[in-house]
Design brief:
The structure is a homodimer.
Chain A lengths: L12 H5 L15 E7 L5 E7 L9 E6 L21 E2 L5 E7 L2 H10 L1 E6 L25 E9 L2 H7 L2 E9 L11 E6 L5 E4 L5 H12 L6 E4 L15 H13 L3 E4 L2 H7 L6 E9 L5 E13 L8 H11 L5 E10 L13 H18 L4 H7 L19 H11 L11 E13 L11 E7 L5 E5 L8 H13 L6 E3 L19 H26 L8 H9 L7 E7 L18 E13 L5 E11 L6 H20 L5 E2 L2 E2 L17 E7 L21 H13 L10 H11 L1
Parallel strand pairs in A: 1-12, 10-11, 14-15, 18-19, 22-25
Antiparallel strand pairs in A: 1-5, 2-4, 2-6, 3-5, 7-15, 8-13, 9-10, 9-12, 13-14, 16-21, 17-18, 17-20, 21-22, 23-24
């Protein structure tokens, strides 16, 4: 192959490095106004009054909205939110009013002049306390703070635990994590004179926003067009409709001018969705020979004040819980809850990092208890190719064995340091993740059109979205390979909007290379067939270049253009009511091995080295795959070691990059990546999705390495020096 | 029919009226520079030196270009131009240098500081004198100022003239006409960091500019993307690549930033192409019974200093000359010439107004000489349906008889005015024009894609360009009709660029409704078939709405999206070397009747009333067709009565709207339009093109009416009071 498998530099890299990419903050439309949202400083309360009369006196103000001015109908996953709040606030940051003005200073000043009276109510922030009797109920019509309960079961769990040689159990606590995307949150809305809305929105789900925003605005989705600027990172944060998108649209309609609403970094940290705080109670049982017998989990997941994707993270947890390892019995309960905190949403890994922190820690504990090598223990219970799991997962390609063996070969126990207060250890953890889409909607498909112009240049118009992962480059390589032309002759129309692009469900679940890649491949294959048919019909030689054939086909009597469209929807199904089913057309495995050094005097654990082996099916672009793995390792390192939203009375205390510590360059260990190519039969050229898996196992691998180094078992993220030090002290 | 034939308001009208449409002057890209071109004030001369050193000292200057800095290869129709001139200037306005700066004032100041030394050469402006021996030759390598000669002949012309009962002859003189589009000329160029150019260009020919500009820049067309902003009128002016487009691109590349080059109105008047000055010498012969016998024409057409479409206007003249009326013998010679004046280009009607001024004047003269009613004389010699002409034209639908009879019925001779110095008269003139494309390239085709989304909204992605004529609305009506959905549920993706859109040759030759309309109809028909196939396969009731069927088809196992593409290239051929052939899939006829009042003391002729009958095949949107006819009448009125580029030593003396007089609202007569619907068999729903025909016959109809009122025969446009007064004086 000539294009697939090549280390093609990202097609958008040069523009991004040169500052030429246009993000939402770079948009300047004629007559555009700037918007600001007035937000609640009270975590829970009854709105008595919102008086905007003084705000109108600020020069340059063009529109002011309160809840009275907008559609009253609640929207969102649990129909529990509106763009502006009219009766009650349920978290610090709730939207009370919004202003559009000729400049941002005027909009801010106008917000400051709005008089708000709120009668405080008792608030609840703790995800266990929120379910206790007497806790303040956020949404009275819902009766309690329980959003929903997810159940799953296979095998005879009670019997398995009863006969087990070894049972381990523990409670694992995971913090809220900020996406910390460098691109600011925002949207630019403009209505044409016919009443049609164009929203410039760095969303991950343009086609779902078209539907959902129309519902929130009470207009027809046919009157809505979503245009995506370059997206400065998303990681799941832009996987739902949030109030700011509706507010920008409503202000623009009221003002009769384009409106840009950009979050400050503080607003982003305080109000944009986060990875949900989660508590995982887990028991795992094994036989004396190392055969895994059973798992039992009871999980609490925070939704914050309004339900978004946070409430669905158990769906991914269940998928791993029921499919990962050959485990004959498993029982799962997860409850999602409302609290007076910021909403929680999707975040790379989507529940899997939370669950596997517990699962992979207990795999390590069991191996140690049974005196087995942790990798051998995993190998013994590993999924195999062509297996059907008790949960209904249909495993096709499976490189679990290979990734475990790769880490085993490359992760060596380091020499003990000379300094007695430094301890070194190694640890491993594995991951199972969807790699061929995830059918959580009725369609998991993507459409693509490939056209080849008179100059032999191919344009790919695909529903998929690039959030930095390299979609454009991967699609160009797939199209180039199928068409037999150089990658430089393929352009992916990334500026296209929902009017022009074929449908796609969005960028999530590591699905784009697999799903969109298959759609592009099918369309390119058909375009190639048109070219070859023309070559044959026009009796052109086999070595006549593509552009010559295309021109000959175009510039003849009854000529035609080369253009083909395809839609790919994977052969999967949604889970049934018992959460059984095969949601993905392929699954992926990985294993991370880490070496840590722990200062037992300070509790500081430093990750020195990571070996990250992943079954990628086939690397369409090894450099991009390595980038995904390295990025996942670093982001997972941040989750495991540094990041945490520190709340006090419902307010995040560390809402700036100085205090909210994502890994810096000095925190990044040596990372050795190993790409295992199993050649998935359904994936495009064998590829499987790899966007999320690398963030998952790094945390438990570090925890297992800390245990290896110190004997101390960490069950809470982030594993800060203070927490490690406390555990060390407790263990003495 | 529900959508075709409806008076749907133009879909872009509300945005344009509200100031929301975005023209090239509205574009603001981050870091965008403004550009200015330094132009020659010498009409012909040798460039001795261009010194830019002082210009660099102006604050804010980011790039300066002279001919030395750009590709030297000549480009254009006759390969006679470059973006910047290095050795010689050949007209006032020639591009000597260009500056990009942070603001336009700095760019202008820098241009003023460039020191240019030019050694003047003798210049020639007159289109007859330029061919005389000893005239200064503009392009020495070409040998003379003759660009090319077009010939055509059928029948025995000499014999026909010899046997004629009546022969009329005359010389007709036509001025240069400015397009006077309200949208300024300009372009915005930006290069991405991979070296690919995006040009925001209100061109009529995006796909040809992709090819031609790549040639001028010496880059691959694959690295060029043309995006059209809203276009503020064009009328043919934007049918070729001109130096400013290349200059914007070259400056942007040099500066490493986006560059906008906008013409001042003065620059537009002085340097943008105009309708060519033309001299038509014509003889026409008829038998005593009113049978047309022969025509003989000898024509001179100005190309200005560099060849653009001006040199091709005889191609359209020939088409009319050989096909219009049943005329058994015809002979035609047209020579196109270089002069030291601004280049000439395409202009609505494209030679036909020039030629038919002569032809239709002589038809009137012959009728009068033979004592025949001018309409009866035309009827006697009129083309008929299903006729093959001596030139090879294949006439299908033909409403010539109907338009003549409509004018006869509606144009009544007015009562004589009471004032003795006022004379009233009536006159008619007819027109023949292409109505089904015009194959001047190897492809006269257009591609279209129609997709229908989950909400039942259809998007039309079509290669065609809207220059104000209503393409968007006509295409929406055609798609809506074929799909069986309301026009409000169709959106035409007018913002799409050459990467995304299927190919089209451009907007010219009244071809868009016919050619693009057929492409859209074919694509919509296929999309409709997909919907109906899905309805049948899914057993949905016949009254299930389209959106429901589309969703059912999409959201099922192995689902698919509704999307179809088509390419329509009409069944025509290019003319042969003798200018015979059938270039259009349909032809159109019209007849204008006018009533004028002439003040014989001042020579002022005022058009009081116009009856404009046109064979439109079928009116997709009668309101838009009426708009085209009214607009054509008014623009043709300007050409006939007011407009003229007054040159002195090669410089246009009346280069502002105050002096260059296009018709104002008070000049517009009552216009009664008559739409004759002949239902063309090849046209979309029977439609034929009507963009140009209405500009053609108004001039000769006025001239004939002046003759009717005063006995004076006008053979020069514009028919100003001075010219009419002189003819009246001469005739006394």
């Amino acid at each position: 192959m000539k294009s697939v498998g090549e280390r093609v530099p990202k097609l958008d890299a040069a523009d991004k490095a040169a500052g030429k990419a246009r993000y939402v903050q770079d948009l300047r439309l004629p007559g555009m106004l700037e918007a600001k949202v007035l937000r609640s400083t009270v975590p829970h309360g009854r709105i008595v009054s919102v008086d905007v009369s003084e705000a109108w006196k600020v020069r340059g103000v063009r529109a002011i909205l309160t809840a009275k001015d907008i559609p009253a109908k609640a929207w969102g996953y649990a129909k529990d939110t509106t763009a502006l709040k009219g009766d009650r606030v349920r978290r610090i940051g709730d939207e009370l009013a919004a202003v559009a003005a000729t400049d941002i200073e005027a909009a801010i000043e106008a917000c400051e002049r709005i008089k708000v009276v709120i009668e405080p109510l008792p608030a609840v922030y703790d995800i266990e306390a929120t379910l206790a009797p007497g806790a303040p109920v956020l949404h009275e019509s819902k009766g309690s703070n329980l959003v929903q309960t997810h159940h799953y079961e296979h095998g005879d769990v009670a019997a398995a635990f009863a006969k087990a040689a070894k049972v381990v159990e523990g409670t694992f606590t995971l913090p809220a994590q900020q996406h910390a995307a460098l691109g600011p949150v925002g949207a630019v809305a403009e209505w044409d004179a016919n009443g049609r809305l164009t929203l410039h929105d760095p969303t991950q789900i343009p086609f779902l926003v078209q539907r959902d925003l129309a519902e929130a605005l009470d207009i027809s989705p046919a009157d809505l067009r979503i245009v995506q600027p370059a997206i400065g990172g998303a990681f799941g944060a832009r996987l739902d409709l949030y109030p700011h998108e509706a507010i920008a649209a409503l202000l623009a309609r009221k003002a009769g001018a384009p409106v840009r609403l950009l979050f400050s970094r503080d607003e982003d940290f305080q109000t944009d969705p986060v990875r949900p705080r989660t508590i995982v109670k887990l028991r795992t049982a094994a036989a004396a020979d190392g055969t895994l017998l059973a798992r039992d989990a009871d999980i609490l997941v925070d939704c914050g004040a309004y339900v978004s994707w946070g409430s669905m993270t158990p769906v991914v947890m269940v998928n791993t819980f029921g499919n990962f390892y050959q485990c004959p019995a498993a029982k799962f309960r997860a409850r999602t809850v409302w609290t007076n905190t910021q909403p929680t949403g999707a975040f790379r890994g989507f529940g899997n990092p939370e669950l596997l922190f517990a699962v992979e820690t207990q795999m390590d504990e069991l191996a140690r208890a049974l005196k087995l090598d942790p990798i051998e223990f995993r190998l013994k219970n590993a999924n195999r190719p062509e297996e059907v799991t008790p949960a209904g997962g249909r495993i096709t390609s499976c490189g679990f064995k290979e990734v475990l063996e790769a880490v085993k070969a490359k992760l060596k126990r380091p020499a003990a340091p000379a300094e007695p207060h430094l301890k070194r250890g190694i640890g491993v953890a594995a991951v199972f993740h969807v790699g061929g889409g995830a059918r959580i909607y009725r369609s998991d498909g993507c459409g693509a059109t490939v056209k080849v112009d008179d100059f032999g240049k191919a344009t790919v118009i695909v529903g998929a979205t690039d959030i930095g992962q390299g979609m454009e480059t991967a699609m160009a390589q797939i199209a180039a390979e199928e068409l037999g032309i150089p990658v430089s002759m393929v352009r992916v129309a990334t500026q296209a909007d929902t009017d022009v692009r074929p449908w796609d469900v969005g960028v999530h679940a590591s699905r784009t290379t697999f799903i969109a890649g298959n759609a592009v491949r099918l369309a390119a294959k058909e375009a190639k067939k048109q070219i070859e048919d023309a070559r044959a019909a026009l009796k052109l030689p086999p070595d006549a270049p593509v552009d010559k054939v295309v021109r000959a086909e175009h510039f003849r009597q009854k000529g035609r253009l080369i253009s083909a469209s395809a839609f790919y929807d994977p052969p999967t199904s949604m889970v049934d009511k018992a959460n059984h089913g095969n949601v993905s057309a392929a699954y992926t495995w990985g294993c991370h091995g880490v070496e840590v050094e722990v200062d037992v005097e300070t509790g500081q654990a430093v990750v020195k080295r990571v070996v990250a082996a992943h079954d990628v099916g086939r690397a369409i672009n090894p450099m991009l795959v390595e980038g995904q793995i390295e990025g996942g390792v670093v982001q997972g390192l941040g989750y495991a070691m540094f990041e945490e939203c520190v709340l006090k009375d419902g307010r995040m205390q560390n809402g700036f990059f100085l205090d909210y510590r994502i890994p810096g360059i000095k925190d990044v260990p040596d990372i050795e990546t190993v790409l295992v190519e199993t050649g998935d039969p359904e994936g495009p050229f064998g590829a499987k999705g790899i966007g999320e898996a690398p963030i998952v196992p790094i945390g438990p691998a570090i925890a297992n390495a800390i245990a290896d180094a110190t004997g101390v078992r960490m069950r809470e993220f982030p594993m800060t020096p203070e927490r490690v030090w406390r555990e060390l002290r407790n263990s003495r």
